[in-house]
Design goal:
heterodimer; A: 296 residues; alpha/beta; Rossmann fold; seven-stranded mixed sheet; 6 helices; disordered N terminus; B: 276 residues; six-stranded mixed sheet; four-stranded antiparallel sheet; 37% helix
Chain lengths: 296, 276
């Protein structure tokens, strides 16, 4: 490829300054109206739409020279999507630092997970979003959806939940759980599991959502209410990870019993469970080793 | 008697409209299509009052604008002119001056509508109970157990088998669909109900039971209703007062008995004669 940033073939952060400015304006509006989907001119990126272009554009528009960036794909730093995005950011933003440690990062781009370690007010979390509008499952016309959002008319989403309880005795939405922000707009919080939805509520960190293909940016500003839709007598609940005996499963690697677990099916059909957040798992292993290493 | 609804000079023109629209349409002109600009004058200068617990009939032939009257009042369509005041206890709502959110609120909380085609009033992809739940959720009832109880009570009231509460309405017969629609419309106990050709297309025994149900509801809940129909039998059975429409104009209004026994307008005379 006839390029390198060494030769300054690209602007810092790949996007030109006008594009960044436009995205920052959309971000400001999104923060000012929590949960509102702000349209923006999603630029062409050197990767397919649907591979995180919305999140990447947010990251590139917000990144500064002293940034410490962490990229997560389904909890892990070393899966293909995360590695490629991280390399792209390193290549187009010379001088910035990258890390796999949640605690050290100042800007986190993530797909499908929010880190287990509570985020701080000095951090920004950027989530990649495939489908920004939670109403798309009940109303095909975007025009009508906009009116519904404006009037906070979400009864048809609640009917979906009602039908779920009728059929299965519980709400079966596993990810993209519709969540009401600041008492008005309901957002699609990107395909994070239910486990992560409570982390949106009163978060210390700014959480931004970018949908590249759908050209929308929205935000959950710090310390904002985020309430998953539910009935007053059938409350929202997160995954419990209990086995048949009712015992909470633990991570097979670190032994943690209060993290979101991934299930791995072995060749013989046996199932093992491990932390989805790889940084959390590493940290927990160190903590356990440290505790054992101490003289009794 | 307390007034529920006051409609004055209600008009609806489809198309660009021109200064000649009104004078060149109507029963005298024998058309509702303006020859100058091609607009359709669906209704013009319709005025009436409705009182608590009263059933008002709107009759006329196809295309006379009778459905348009209830559609504008239910905010399905915006009128081109006129005003309507809804009296809700101590408050008055000037219907067409409200913003969209207020209109939606009234529609969800205080009005009910039963369409001729259950397709319009029901979502066929969610269960009968879900359809009623939708209406209850619109009026901010957020308790699953309470919603479920209320849906079942309403379906029982409208004589839908409770074992079918979780079935899709598309698997129901026409009469049952209409019952579910009535149950849905009644979910929030609205003081005002619009019935648009509710029995058209149903067989006679089913028609009779639906009409009985409507009368019972009116007796029980004192719901005021506007019944749109071209069926004089329905008008005679249900309504106390009626208006007769032709080409978008009210040509006769008064007590139902009077209109049916002693029609004044030539068109009403023909209508009554042809039905007997």
């Amino acid at each position: 490829m006839p390029h390198t940033t060494r030769g300054n073939a690209y602007n810092f952060g790949f996007l030109d300054e006008y594009a960044k400015k436009e995205i920052r304006r959309a971000v400001l509006k999104a923060i000012a109206i929590p949960g509102y989907q702000v349209p923006y001119a999603s630029r062409e990126m050197p990767m397919g739409r649907g591979f995180g272009t919305g999140g990447l554009q947010l990251t590139l528009a917000l990144i500064g020279p002293d940034e410490v960036v962490k990229v997560i794909d389904q909890g892990a730093d070393d899966s293909v999507n995360a590695v490629n995005l991280r390399q792209f950011i390193e290549m187009t933003c010379p001088g910035i630092a990258t890390t796999t440690k949640t605690a050290e990062s100042s800007l986190i781009q993530s797909r499908h997970r929010i880190p287990e370690r509570p985020l701080t007010s000095t951090q920004i979390l950027v989530l990649q979003v495939p489908y920004p509008d939670p109403l798309v499952v009940v109303e095909p016309s975007e025009d009508k959806r906009k009116t519904m959002h404006g009037e906070a008319d979400y009864s048809r989403l609640l009917v979906k939940l009602y039908e779920d309880i009728v059929k299965f005795d519980e709400i079966t939405i596993s990810h993209r759980y519709p969540t009401r922000i600041n008492g008005h707009y309901v957002i699609d919080p990107s395909p994070i599991p239910r486990w992560d939805v409570p982390k949106l509520n009163d978060s210390a960190a700014l959480i931004l959502f970018g949908a590249g293909r759908e050209k929308k940016i929205y935000a959950v500003p710090p310390h904002t209410r985020a309430e998953p839709l539910a009935f007053s007598d059938v409350p929202f609940r997160v995954e419990d990870f209990r086995d048949a005996a009712g015992q909470r499963r633990a991570c097979a690697r670190c032994g943690c019993t209060d993290s979101f677990l991934d299930e791995f099916v072995g060749d013989s059909g046996s199932k093992t469970y491990q932390c989805s957040d790889s940084d959390w798992c590493d940290e927990y292993v160190l903590r356990v080793e440290h505790a054992q290493g101490e003289p009794a | 008697m307390n007034k529920i609804l006051e409609v004055r000079g209600l008009s609806k023109i489809y198309g660009p409209g021109c200064p000649h629209c009104v004078e060149s349409t109507g029963p005298e002109a024998d058309t509702n299509l303006c020859p100058h600009c091609g607009s359709i004058v669906a209704i013009h200068d319709v005025s009436f009052d409705l009182f608590e617990g009263e059933i008002l009939g709107v009759m006329g032939e196809s295309g006379s604008g009778k459905s348009t009257v209830v559609k504008t009042l239910y905010f399905d369509q915006a009128p081109t002119g006129g005003e309507a005041i809804f009296f809700d206890g101590d408050t008055q709502h000037e219907l067409f001056a409200l913003n969209a959110a207020r209109q939606r609120w009234l529609r969800n909380h205080r009005f009910g509508m039963v369409y001729q085609n259950p397709n319009l009033g029901l979502n066929f992809n969610i269960s009968a109970g879900g359809n009623i739940a939708e209406r209850l959720l619109m009026s901010d009832l957020m308790d699953y157990g309470a919603i479920r109880e209320r849906a079942k009570a309403l379906l029982a009231r409208t004589e839908v088998l409770l074992s079918r509460v979780d079935d899709l309405p598309k698997h129901f017969s026409g009469g049952m669909q209409q019952r579910v629609q009535i149950a849905k419309a009644l979910a929030t106990q609205p003081p005002l109900l619009f019935l648009d050709e509710v029995t058209t297309g149903l067989d006679l025994s089913v028609q009779a039971r639906i009409l009985d149900l409507i009368l019972e509801i009116q007796q029980e809940l004192k719901t005021a209703m506007i019944v749109v129909t071209h069926d004089l039998g329905v008008i005679r059975l249900l309504t106390g007062r009626a208006i007769v429409m032709k080409y978008g104009r009210v040509i006769e209004a008064g007590l139902t008995d009077q209109i049916l026994e002693d029609p004044q307008h030539a068109y009403t005379q023909r209508l009554v004669a042809s039905a007997l």
